[in-house]
Amino acid sequence: MLLAGGAAVVGLGATGASLLPDRTEAAVLPRLLTDAAWHVPDPAADEEWLARGSVPGAGGPHEAMVRQALLDLRALTRQNGAVAAGPAPSWNYAWPRDSAFAAVALARTGHGDDAARVLGFLEDVQLGDGGFEARYLLDGSGTPDGRRRQDDGAGWALWALREVLDADPATAAARARTHRGLLEGALGFVLRATGSGRRLPEPSSDYWERREASLTLGAVAPLVAGLRAAAAVLSRLGERSRAREVSSAAGSLAELVHAGFGPSGYARYVDRAEPPGGLDAAVTFLLPPFAARAEPAVLAAFDVYTATAARPAGGLAPGAGWRRDGISWTPETALAALACAASGRRQEANSWLNWLNAHRTSWGSLPEKVLPDGSPAGPAPLGWSAAATVLAVAELGEP
User: Fold this and answer.
1) What is the CATH number of the domain that holds 154?
2) How many CA atoms lie within 13 A of 11 on its CB side?
3) How many domains does the chain have?
4) Please, where are the H alpha helices in the chain?
5) What is the pLDDT of residues 167-208, one digit of tens each?
6) Any residues with CB less than 8 A from the CB of 384 and at least 6 apart, and which?
7) Tens digit of each residue's pLDDT (9 = 90 or more) over 133-149
8) What is the domain range of residue 272?
9) Which of 334, 316, 234, 225 has its CA nearest to residue 279?
């Protein structure tokens, strides 16, 4: 998780976070900011909670990693549904993007009530126009700073709503009615931002957490996924005519995204004819499970991203143009595993999952970063990495 203005946390001393500009070539390497003492487990309660759901990959090589990731998500999720991105001070806030992934991971593993609480928190903090701030205080009372909004939050909320409903068809109708406000608010925001799919939205910050003058794939691709998800939810609610309208808007916006980003090989920015080195992890947002199918051109772009963003320890950087500090990031690596698993690339998915498994902390959590020498760094656990990893293993099915 990055901090405002595109700076990454690279150390945490007694006076707080030490910041460096995004693309600094020479940077002090971060250290592990948390340890096993971040959470006091209750083994009996943890086992009871796990037993109420399922552990993807049970009996296989990734079972222990998934079990720990699920327990970390449980510990990061507050009673009000707020999901802390991580336990370190600068990460102890709720990002809508991270929360959406956590909700889906919880729902897919049989913890529907926990997932519903996460959706409820998102609905509670949703802005009047249906969008979201970049991050929130865990009590839902507001934001910790003046960071600019991130418009992808509405798309992620809609995607999460659909996935939570699909995970348990028996409760889907009731949950859809309960979260009607989240649906209508986020859908309205996306439709207004895109002219009902007829135009690309204005630039917005995305998961790189920095101000942007140009539209990024990371900001718009989640809106396409959100519109598709909203159409499915409306259809589930029996509103077939409206569902068709929203589905049409999703199709139109998807065409604009492919037309705007495709010529550059799906580089990060829409208005720059960048070489393949300009790709970032947002290309995964155009692949399953966020899209219905894996388009060959997008898969080819994904391959370029993973090749050009590879780091010495074996993981991935947020983008091929990310600063050359040698650090691997687990959220992006987990997204690669998820995209491969959902696109039928089982061998590649397992390879990325094996790497994540081999670079956990000594107590088993996934850290945010992995240094060039393979040691974990940054906060651990990181909720986004944990959730994406659980979903990737779930997509692979039984070992």
Assistant:
1) 1.50.10.10
2) 8
3) 1
4) 43-51, 63-76, 96-108, 112-125, 152-167, 169-178, 180-193, 217-236, 240-261, 296-308, 330-342, 346-358, 383-396
5) 999 999 999 999 999 999 999 999 999 999 999 999 999 999
6) 1, 85, 95, 97, 98, 101, 102, 331, 334
7) 999 999 999 999 989 99
8) 4-396
9) 316
